[in-house]
Structure formats: structure tokens, C-alpha cells
């Protein structure tokens, strides 16, 4: 099974900051990496698919990069509505989520 | 508009079976896969399995193999998740989710809370 490891598990940031979350796969998954945002009491929301494809309606301050085993989600100019937990997911072989990164207010 | 509406919260005793549903609208369950994801309280997301409309085949994650069954009623466009041999660790939110473009989960249900308690 492919394991996904996110770091950090949590971070504190201020409005306007640039936030970077990394996700590492236990083996190469090419570009088959997706990012989701989950707010308390809500279902996850797809932000980015295939490592870097921003979904329709998702603000351009979100971006994704990487391939192979190492991936990054970047939020430039953090907004109040961005405080949430972020999950990566590989869809190369079956589906596996990272353990999540909680972004809270500094 | 695509919508996934899940059944309500359940409270079950240990050792019993729960069956929850996910009714879709805006498309047919025969068109796209349906996946189920578990989220224990305060924990992350764990993929449980999927129902593939091509041939009606279900594929289950190793962690749930033998205890989970995913089926569909095409006449009502509803997909079901059945989990047997319930234990306290199965207390969780269960989400249905469907990929309509490639292999990522575009649409999600609102979640169903299953509480396992004696």
C-alpha cells in the first residue's frame, strides 16, 4: 500500500502569510495527487487535482506542485476562510489520504 | 446539479450491523463510481472502498475487507454501505464521494455519524 505523509501536522499562521504544506508518498505516484480542504462539521472539498490543477471556483492563492513522491500545497496571502484542515490524497494505486494538516490562527 | 444526500445518524450496539445510504441526484449511479470514506472523531480520512458501475463490482480497502459491503439500488439511484461486526472504533462519520472527472473526489455527501455504544 502507498503511504502518504504530510508535514507539518499543524501550523499557526496569520492572515496574509504564505503557508506551505508538504506531502510525501512512499513510492512514486507520478502526478496522481489531490488536495482537499475540510472545515469543522463539513465534508472535504476538492481544491487541486493531478498535483497542480486548480478546481473551478477555488481562489488562485491556492497552488499545488510536485511529481513523483514529493508534493506541495501553497496558500499565498492566507485569508480568514482558509483556516481549515488540509489533506493530500494519492489516486495512483487505490486511494490513500495523508493524515492532515491543521491550519489555525496565530 | 449533482447532489449526494446521506441517511441520518445511527446508534448501534457492538457486534451488530449498520447500513447507511447515499442518494444521488443530477446523475445516475450507473454512470460513475461511488466511494466511501471513514473519519473517526478528531481523526483523518480513510478510504473504505468503492462500487464500480461497470459490472457492479465492489473493491474494498484491506482494513475493512470482510466487514464492509457496498451495493446500489439503481432504481432509486442510491448507494449503500453496510458495516458488520461493529466495534467502538467504528464510531465515525462516513462519507460517500464520487469522482466525475478522473480519479479525484469531486462531490461528497454530508456525512453520516455512526455511534457504536452499548
Short description:
The complex is a heterodimer of chains A (106) and B (118). Chain A has strands at 4-7, 10-13, 18-25, 33-38, 45-49, 53-54, 62-67, 70-76, 84-90, 96-97, 101-105. By secondary structure, chain A is mainly beta.
Walk me through the structure.
The complex is a heterodimer of chains A (106) and B (118). Chain A is mainly β and 106 residues long. Chain A is 0% helix and 53% strand. In chain A, strands 2, 4, 5, 6, 9, 10 and 11 form a seven-stranded mixed β-sheet that branches. In chain A, strands 1-3-8-7 form a four-stranded antiparallel β-sheet, with no helix packed on it. Chain B is mainly beta and 118 residues long. In chain B, the strands form two sheets. In chain B, strands 2, 4, 5, 6, 9, 10 and 11 form a seven-stranded mixed β-sheet that branches. In chain B, a hairpin with a 4-residue loop joins strand 7 and strand 8 (78-83). In chain B, 34% of the residues are buried. Chain B contains no helices and eleven strands. Helices cover 0% and strands 49% of the residues of chain B. Chain B has strands spanning 3-6, 10-12, 18-25, 34-39, 46-52, 57-60, 68-73, 78-83, 92-98, 107-108, 112-116. The N and C termini of chain B lie far apart (40 Å). Classes of the chains: A mainly beta (106), B mainly beta (118). Chains A and B meet through strand 4, strand 5 and strand 10 of A and loops of B.
